[in-house]
Amino acid sequence: MKKFFLKLKFCVLACAVVLGSAHAQTSATAPIRILVGAPAGGTTDTMARTLAQAMGQQLGRVVVVENKPGAGGNLAADMVAKAAPDGNTLLMSFTSHAINASLYPSLPFDPIKDFTPLTMVSTSPSVLVAHPSLPVKNVADLVKLAKEKPGQLNFAIGALGSSLHLAGDSFKMKAGVFIVNIPYRGTAPAVQDVLAGQVELMFAAVGNAQAHIKAGKLRALGVTSPKRLPAFPDVQAIGETLPGYESSAWFGLFAPGRMNPDLAKRLSDAARVAIQTPDVKRRIESEGAIPAGNSPQEFSKFVEAEIVRWRSVVQYSGAKPE
To answer: Does this chain's domain 16-124+250-317 share its CATH topology with 126-240?
Structure first.
């Protein structure tokens, strides 16, 4: 009988080893999911899909993108925060990851502790545009006019609490002017009303405004990047007139918190190599964005600083979740 139980124990242990090995193999070969807290077709979705294939080639794995829009990106973020830190579930997030920390009274996750930042994928400066009928040529002209006519000029806002909304409020804080926000349900109708002259001003993504600027339907007054952009060499950086002003959207790759540092480095390295491949760089730049690819440590410090930076702007704006 004793020999029987010894044999049984050996069989159980052997089965456990085989099953454990099979599970590890399944986990290592299963598709990596990148969750996106925005609908398909938007810039965040495009960034994720641009990165997925090239990153998968680096890892020798299939990488798929799943859209989980809702609550300003918080739905997807919550799913990743609660996922196992095994490298199979990642998050492509954007500036709202930092903004939401102040915009929402409470979140079901900690935007710092519950995530492992892997790398910044890209940054996306915006451009301050005006309808051509507005008698201003640059930022200095706009500040002068806004001070002469407080509350008589308007900013079109594609989404309350978005990076573009807060770019405008940062501008007003720096310039000391009062310009009224006109909220819209989406960027497209906001752009259309500025094109039609119904609203005078807007902060727009470069990709959304570039064709209209070249066609003379919108006038570019300034860009939100620290320096002038190659796409608009004659358009000043707003910081040239308002020192210290900068407001770029960013897109970054996160993993669940408590991830093994070696695994985090492997995922980060794969993403960073993918970002620098010519095809990926070209596609990122076609969206009016600038490829990045910093280290996990650099990205972590950046996210923490962004949460602090946006807090005062959110408080100034009085923005509430939609």
So the answer is: yes
Q: Which residue positions in the chain have pLDDT lower than 70?
A: 1-28, 322
- Of 234, 224, 185, 184, residue with least CA distance to 204: 224
User: Taking the domains of the chain in order of start, what are their residue ranges?
Assistant: 16-124+250-317, 126-240
d(CA 181, CA 179): 7
The C-alpha atoms of residue 206 and residue 229 are separated, in whole angstroms, by 10
With both helix axes pointing from N to C terminus, report the angle between 163-175 and 96-103 in degrees, rounded to the nearest 10. 70
pTM for this prediction: 0.82
High-pLDDT (> 70) share of the chain, %: 91
Within 110-220, residue ranges assigned H as helices are 139-148, 163-175, 187-195, 206-214
The conformation of residue 236, written as its DSSP 8-state character, comes to: P
- The whole-number pLDDT of residue 25 equals 36
Residue 93, CA distances (Å) to 23, 45, 58, 74, 77 in order: 29, 9, 21, 9, 8
Note the CATH architecture for domain 126-240.
3-Layer(aba) Sandwich (3.40)
Token pair 């451009």: residue? 127
pLDDT number for residue 5? 36
CATH number for the region 16-124+250-317 comes to 3.40.190.150
pLDDT digits (tens, 9 = 90+) for 85-100: 999 999 999 999 999 9
Do residues 83 and 89 make contact, with C-beta atoms less than 8 angstroms apart? yes
Nearest to 262 by CA among 121, 86, 89: 86
